[in-house]
Specification:
Number of helices: 13
Helix content: 25-40%
Radius of gyration: 26 Å
Order of helices and strands: HHHHHHHHHEEEEHHHEEHEEEEEEEEEEE
Distance between the termini: 73 Å
Shape: globular
Number of domains: 4
Structural class: alpha+beta
Strand order of the largest sheet: 6-7-8-11-10-9
């Protein structure tokens, strides 16, 4: 069977800058600047990418790649969005880290793919178990690159699904897809088939609409249940194909919902990913939990996005009209409050200019010429202050990011949904809790004196019937938390009633 895997062109020149001694390499990696992820990434890439261009014996290459694995994993974990924001990096430096972690995952995958091609090119495959392990390492690194892209709302790296499909197809051909081996990787007890099926299902979970952190939790949950899914040859089905997903193992595209396809489906190597039992097991897990715990579980989110009858909330039902104007926007709960206070005092606001691609009654589609990796995420609070050409025009508008797509060098697009009302900065504290300090919040007044007023606070302030003391100018108002309207990683939005 033909093997379509991209790898760097290799040469016979012995690069004197490459460290080919495993013990010396281990000491060098241990001496990398732990607190400087950007510099560590640069140094590792400057060693690993040239290694992939050097012709080496298969055993030597695998030995060196094994030494790199722990460091690569550490750098990968350090680049999780929440962790990356905690590091003292500029916006440009964070952007470079995001780019370099993708390069690092793909470079590790390239190293293992070189070995796959070398072993596959032998007249007779001598060590099938070892071949299966290398295949698993290859797909694991490709999955890491894909997961990293989804974390930052980026399109899949070029040809990643072609290669993931190719490796899984090769493993099936040799009967190696379900062999479990022990290694130093984070999901060592998940076989190659489990990784493949989890990646395929994750790509169907609308990752560009997932709140920050959900991509990782969804993937972990899918790995846990992956053994309940199966991939079978075929391009047709009977009845309602809910829980069935179509895959072309010879193609370069992600799976598709069978409910949106007409049976039979034309493809070079058609297969069906049957996830019905997996979804059933997730449902049983949730059914066994108390109602208040179910919504916190990743299984609940996976079921919501994989069941086709569920309408994503970022889909606007009202008519979208082309726009083209420019607006000033603040992003993040703290930045929104700071910007509104600055606006009230006539000071300069740290806002960015976005173009409105289209507008509807409930929100906008916005475009920015730069990459927003590590700057924005789904579920974040944003505030549109004014048209960029008319700074004093109209009241501020609070919105929530519902979907985000970072096109790397092609700029960023996002969809935002309007929160009704006019925001005004206030302060509040939780009543009857000694030592509780005042904190900033936003009071949303009704724009037309209709509907309930609401509060937007930092995350985890809301609790049902909790008593809050709100300070509005010189006034002190006691309120009780009412219905929760929105709970995102960065803020809570809820109605309230007066009095304690």
């Amino acid at each position: 069977m033909p093997l379509l895997l991209t790898t760097p062109e290799q040469h016979d020149f012995q690069d004197p800058t490459l460290e080919l001694n495993e013990h010396k390499l281990q000491r060098w990696l241990a001496g990398l600047p732990v607190l400087n992820a950007g510099e560590s990434l640069r140094m590792v890439l400057n060693a690993l990418e040239p290694l992939n261009e050097q012709k080496l014996d298969t055993n030597k290459r695998l030995a060196l790649l094994a030494v790199y694995q722990a460091t690569v994993k550490r750098l990968y974990v350090a680049a999780e969005p929440a962790r990356l924001r905690q590091q003292p990096l500029s916006t440009e430096q964070r952007q470079i880290v995001v780019d370099d972690v993708e390069r690092l995952s793909l470079a590790m995958a390239n190293g293992f793919k070189i070995v796959v091609k070398q072993m596959y090119g032998q007249a007779a495959l001598q060590d099938k178990a070892r071949f299966g392990q290398v295949l698993r390492w290859s797909i694991q690194q490709l999955a890491a690159a894909l997961l990293h892209s989804y974390r930052y709302y980026r399109p899949e790296p070029a040809f990643v699904f072609l290669e993931i499909n190719q490796i899984y197809r090769l493993a099936r051909h040799h009967g190696l897809q379900e062999i479990v081996t022990s290694d130093e990787q984070g999901d060592a007890q998940v076989n190659l088939a489990g990784i493949y099926q989890a990646v395929c299902l994750l790509s169907l979970c609308d990752p560009f609409s997932l709140e920050e952190g959900l991509t990782d939790s969804f993937y972990s949950a899918l790995l846990q249940y992956a053994g309940a899914a199966r991939v079978v040859p075929g391009n047709s089905w009977q009845g309602v194909p809910e829980g069935l997903f179509f895959i072309d193992l010879a193609g370069d595209s992600q799976p598709r919902h069978c409910v949106y396809l007409d049976s039979p489906v034309e493809a070079d190597e058609p297969h069906i990913l049957d996830a019905r039992e997996l979804l059933t097991q997730m449902h049983k897990t949730l059914a066994a939990l108390p109602a208040d715990r179910r919504r916190q579980r990743p299984e609940a989110g996976v079921l919501r996005v994989l069941l086709p009858e569920v309408t994503p909330r970022d889909k606007r039902s009202s008519e979208r009209l082309p726009d083209g104007r420019w607006i000033q926007m603040l992003s993040g709960f703290d930045e929104v409050i700071s910007g509104l206070l600055a606006r009230r005092g006539g000071d300069q606001m740290n806002a960015s200019a976005w173009r409105v691609k289209d507008a509807s009654e409930g929100g906008y589609c916005l475009a920015w010429d730069e990459s927003a990796a590590s700057l924005l995420h789904v579920g974040e609070l944003v505030c549109v202050l004014a048209d960029s050409e008319h700074q004093d025009a109209g009241p501020a508008q609070l919105m929530v990011v519902r979907w985000l797509r970072d096109g790397r060098d092609e700029g960023t697009e996002l969809g935002v949904e309007l929160l009704d009302g006019i925001p005004g900065p206030v302060t509040l504290k939780v009543a009857n809790e000694p030592g509780c300090e005042q904190q900033s919040a936003l009071f949303l007044t009704s724009a037309n004196n209709q509907g309930a007023a609401r509060l937007v606070t930092a995350a985890q302030v809301y609790a049902e019937d909790r008593i809050l003391i709100v300070y509005v100018g010189e006034r002190e108002v006691t309120v009780r938390c009412g219905a929760l309207l929105e709970q995102a990683p960065g803020f809570d939005c809820f109605e309230f009633t007066s009095g304690g």
